[in-house]
Amino acid sequence: MKKVPRTSRDLQAAERKVQILQGAKELFALHGYHGTSIRAINKQIGITDGLLYHYFPGGKQELLETIFQEAQVVRLKIMDDLIAGIHPGQPLEEALYLLVSSMVKTMLGDKDFMLIMMRDSDSILSDDKNFLSEMILKRHQALTDALKQRALNGEIRDMDFNAAAKQVLSIGIMVVIGEVTSLNIINADIDSYLRHMIAFTVSLWR
């Protein structure tokens, strides 16, 4: 089937939707979902109630669901690529550092979204609302399996690989929480902190 070219009107509509979503996301992150009104979103973007409901008939709830769904697709793809990138031939410390630092970079790539998820995930109606937790759990299992294989290869000792995988992922999660909430948890440069913590953790497994 021949693809129908998008008209300037289509492009304008798409740009307007992106503008509305971005404005809503910024306000949700700043004031919370329940603390943000449709009027505030309209004022932020400079549009009327009618125009917002034209693009998002479900109003504020549809805006939240759309922000969530779009972010979910992007992050799942990135995290799948990260796990696939743990090559058996890499030094273990380097492989774990690349995994955790990339996970942190991915999550901090959109701090507004992460803040919304921490504060207002209960307001999301989607069946996939717990995708961040499930995403981490899935990668946790893949990491557990990878550590078992490294032990079989004699790189690390036999241990509770499930707990070891959680230990590694928690290093990155602590950084994300600190950066998103502005809590001074690590009190150091992120890259240096991650390298130090990964090296320290792996040294305990030898």
TrEMBL record:
InterPro entries: Homeodomain-like_sf, HTH-type_TetR-like_transc_reg, HTH_TetR
SUPFAM superfamilies the record matches: Homeodomain-like
Superkingdom of this protein's organism: Bacteria
PROSITE patterns documented for this protein: HTH_TETR_2 (PS50977)
Residues in the DNA-binding region annotation: 37-56
Ranges for domain HTH tetR-type: 14-74
Keywords: DNA-binding, Transcription, Transcription regulation
Pfam families, sorted: TetR_N
PANTHER family, per database record: HTH-TYPE TRANSCRIPTIONAL REGULATOR BETI (PTHR30055:SF234), HTH-TYPE TRANSCRIPTIONAL REGULATOR RUTR (PTHR30055)
Protein name, UniProt field: HTH tetR-type domain-containing protein
Species lineage: Bacteria, Bacillati, Bacillota, Bacilli, Bacillales
